[in-house]
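Entry 14. Ran structure prediction on the chain below.
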Amino acid sequence: MNYRYNFDDEKNDNKKRIIFVIIFLIFLIMFVAFFFRNSSNKIIRTTSNIISKPVVFIYNIVTNAGTTIKDSLREPEDIIAENEALKLENETLKMQALESKKILDENESLKKMLNISKEYQHFEIKVGNVIFREHDNWTQVFTINLGSNDGIKLNQAVVHESGLVGYISAVNSDSSVVTTILDPTSSVSVTVSTINEPAVLQGDTELKSNNKLKLIYIPLDTEISVSDILYTSGLGSMYPSSIPVGKITEVIYEKNNVARYALVEPNVDIRKITEVGVIIN
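Output, structure tokens:
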């Protein structure tokens, strides 16, 4: 019995070897055919292409899989590079937008300066820009880029195309300080459009934050009302006459309706202007 068992076992081993050899020869023939599929001999080439089809199929699968894996590994690098390119493009567009805005702002500024010069063409006038503003609770002043080198002197009137702004209170060689009509220390002799009698327009600590002024010393027999326009009277040596200053927004009575004052809104939004003119002569 043991002899029979060993003989059958040996037969099985021989079958396995034969099968292995056959499979090996098949794969060997296919791989050899794979390498001869581009032969110059038509018969060999055709035969090789037919035999090597399974190998070509497997080769394509492996190659495509390798390419996919390689692309997936490179994808983060590509995304990073693309993001960097987009960032650079975005920064370039931002710079171009800023340059465009700068040009538009400069053109608008030049236009406003030209309007100021036209509005006061009967005066000798220098136009410039606001370069610094004081931010405190008491004063209302700013600095402009015109100084003694430009013919600027103390107490010269400062204007905007819409009306009076203030006066020159300090002068350097290339810059000057403007005290505006909103400043609590400022006062302007004005006339009301409906009459020809002067009153005094003053800056007020409580009112300046609301861009308002206080009209005082109004003659008792003078009739004033809301929307009346105020002009410089020309009294004194600081402000020429007939420059628009503001309009009355409210009339307030005190002491049994005998005494009164008025609130005035300047023609110029002094806290926002960026261009001014200085009347030289």
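The radius of gyration is 47 Å. Will compare against last week's run tomorrow.
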